[in-house]
Fold each of these.
Amino acid sequence: MNILNYPVSSLKGIGLQTANRLQKLGLCVIQDLLFHLPLRYEDRTRVYPISALRAGMTTLITGKVEFIDVSDRGRKSLICRISDGTGFINLKFFHFSASQHNALKLGTAISCFAEVRFGYGGLEMVHPEYKVLTHPDECVTENRLTPVYPLTEGLSQNVIRKAVKQALAFCEQDSGLLTDWVPETLLKQYAFPVLADAISTLHAPDESISAIALQNGSLPALKRLAFEELLAHYLSLRITRNKTKAWQAPLFLSGSTTKIVTDHFIRSLPFKLTNAQQRVISEIEADCGLQHPMMRLVQGDVGSGKTVVSAYAALLALTAGYQVAVMAPTELLAEQHYRNFRGWFENFDTQVMYLTGQLKGNPRKAVLQALEEGTAGIIIGTHALFQDSVNFNRLGLIIIDEQHRFGVHQRLALREKGQQGSIRPHQLVMTATPIPRTLAMLQYSDLDISIIDELPPGRKAIVTSVIPAERRADVIDRINGWVEKKKQVYWVCTLIEESEVLQCEAAENTAERLTQALPKVRVALIHGRMKSADKDAVMQAFKSHQIDLLVATTVIEVGVDVPNAGLMIIENPERLGLSQLHQLRGRVGRGNDDSFCLLMYQAPLSDTARHRLGVLRDSNDGFVIAEKDLELRGPGEVMGTRQTGQMHFKIADLARDTDMLEIVQQVGDSFFTHSPQAIQPLCDRWLGTSTEYSEV
Ligand code: ADP
Ligand code: MG
């Protein structure tokens, strides 16, 4: 057996307790240590003169003790001032022993390593790592950068460093231990080092390697490992997808009866479907005719008409005698879907129902019963749909709107509900946040993707301008003129902090001030903390033009549709992501006239912020905007990984490594035909034995 597969406890210095702690980090066998890559590095390769120190630097210094005392001011602490001739710095210890105090006698030479901060008496180091020097000229530097590893409670850097060293030594002795699954041609093409070399470079970078190269990702060893990690993730998602294909799906027949029903549906719509909508519909129809569950993501810009496409899919399920669940991220949006679906299915023999967390008591019981007994054909709602009390009779299709707003687990939970023996329901997820193609292939490689790349005819472009907040008075004038023309306006207040309360307060204040500034304008307010019935009432009033100016928080981001509202002011747009701004802006431009969006920023703007707002001014294409957002902000913002926490990488960085994604996909696909034996080992190596990922 390969020694790298021995448990970590077989290493020197690792007892049962340490092994248990390592296991918490997913480090079970020796090989795991090799792939436990440093978070960052510490530089003890040079001694800094104290005069060159700045707050925030983490550095090695030397000096002689020139003052020491225990201070009782505030928290009791040992204060020790050292000087190296160029300047002095205070060392501060809150926990200290008498022997420590005694050892730091005046005139003693010591070396220290820690982060430099600002203290009351100038620069200081708190609890530095330090060593008393036997000779003032003693060499204290190291010739390599020191790796800093992710830890867990009870583990020290030293324990991990020693363990990793032993693991690396095994590989050095026998280069055959660590199989390099990346094809040689590829290594040559990209000048990647072989696996063992790349691993040892990252754990123990030699003198030639700078901290900067390790940080900016230009180092071939790092690139190579990032590539391999992305590859492993891609493979694991492909495996998930293959598993889905092994499940059975509810059968949606596509015979002549279905055709009569679907034709009737299409004829009863108040508009003609666009070519793009028709194309996506036929892709969905093809999926539903297969043995395994559909897993399809429909991407389409705001206003491209995704909802009706999902309604068509719902029709297929209903015709086959199955139930449909439609899940939306907000009540406002769920309500709008509810109204739309009820309208579209009015002349069809099915019951459309609505469920949110707000629904209580008997009405709620009635809905749950109708779902369980199967009398409800379509259920539309929010997160409330996957609560324990909800049981379906025959769930055949799950539709999830604005999928990026949901966590992976929520998606999973809903699917579990629909499981009937070996049959799992079809899934259709929709998003208006276009995901750059390269990212989509990694993030969603368990899904098939359809794109609605065409807006319904007659939509006018939205004219966007970027203006400073000092021109508020002009903006208010413009609102007056606009409202005189019997048109409506949105005024969007963006997030102040992460706090919803503060956001709502800000919107309330703005609404008040605008009411005063615009006496002839009917102003109303809508925000996330209002009761759903109140929100509904305000939205209805806005739709029926009893309100001219709607002051809103970002709750209106998704869904709402009021064609007569063609002017939107977004305050402090610099606080939001481009894709989110694009979504907000999509609320206007729904009528037949020109519409306008004013991005009213707070000066001064950073260069990046100026650049970002410029992107929005110059483009109305969600895909272009998403690509730019990725470039300027990084993938977390684009994909909403912050919310859903889907991807955790040890070393890869989607923004930095975007250039490799395409090749990852190509190589990954070829593994299934050319080196299937490599797939499991690669996934184990990088994803460990955690199966959470592949279950989703
Ligand atoms: P989104 O893709 O942003 O979810 P919606 O599905 O809400 O877009 O559609 C936006 C608006 O366009 C709705 O009022 C919808 O009824 C309308 N719509 C959808 N398809 C068409 C079409 N082919 N022609 C005209 N209007 C359409
Ligand atoms: Mg929508």
Note: Confidence is low (pLDDT under 50) at residues 636-646, 690-696.
Amino acid sequence: MTRRVLIAGNWKMNLLRAEGEALAAALAENFAADGAADMLVCPPATLIAPVAAVLHGSAVSVGGQDCHMKPSGAHTGDVAAAMIKDLGGSYVIVGHSERRADHDESDATVKAKAEAALSAGLVPIVCVGETEAERDAGKAEAVVESQIRGSLPDGATETGIVIAYEPVWAIGTGRTPTIDDIASMHAHMRKVAASMLGGADALRLLYGGSVKPGNAVEILGLADVDGALVGGASLKAEDFLAIATAAG
Ligand code: PEP
């Protein structure tokens, strides 16, 4: 089974409009559609429309960083999945560890958000990952398995969702798990997902946490790693493009 690599950038709460448009323009201009990878950027909600306008007609897709679990209604400050779709989005990140921590999001919340994304026609990128204390206690695989079992949306299919493994302690720290640890976690994740979906050969599993041009070739070379979710390095066109090139 050939799975197309997905290189996804999470801009988090960074960049004003002119900066986001300039970054998107640099990606659109330099990312070749005929390579081995798909490229996605997830700007802050305020920039989805202008970034989508810049990326229109290019090989780079746009997505959201979060969505509400409800399709519409009295939820001040929140963004519905259909609103992201309406602006040209095709993916949405749900359950990022920063949202799980900052907004107390449980697996049940993440699952409901992923279901809202599916209903709106978006591909949810469901994030999971252990804390450093959980890894030190030897519980990393159990924690990630439990998050997958609790967070995957009803109605998920192998090609309709993406799962991103992001160890909390590796995000923005410059630290990464060993290559063997990434390999064994991804193999475990595929097994767990297969038991829920009836198969996972076509399911894309991303690794996230301090991915840079210098470590991308090794990480993306792993059999069960089908792309990367990139934070800091996605804010520099040169670095993000180099990571995409590392996909082969
Ligand atoms: C992230 O927050 O999704 C992430 C992977 O961040 P970084 O690449 O900066 O570690």
Note: The longest helix spans residues 179-197.
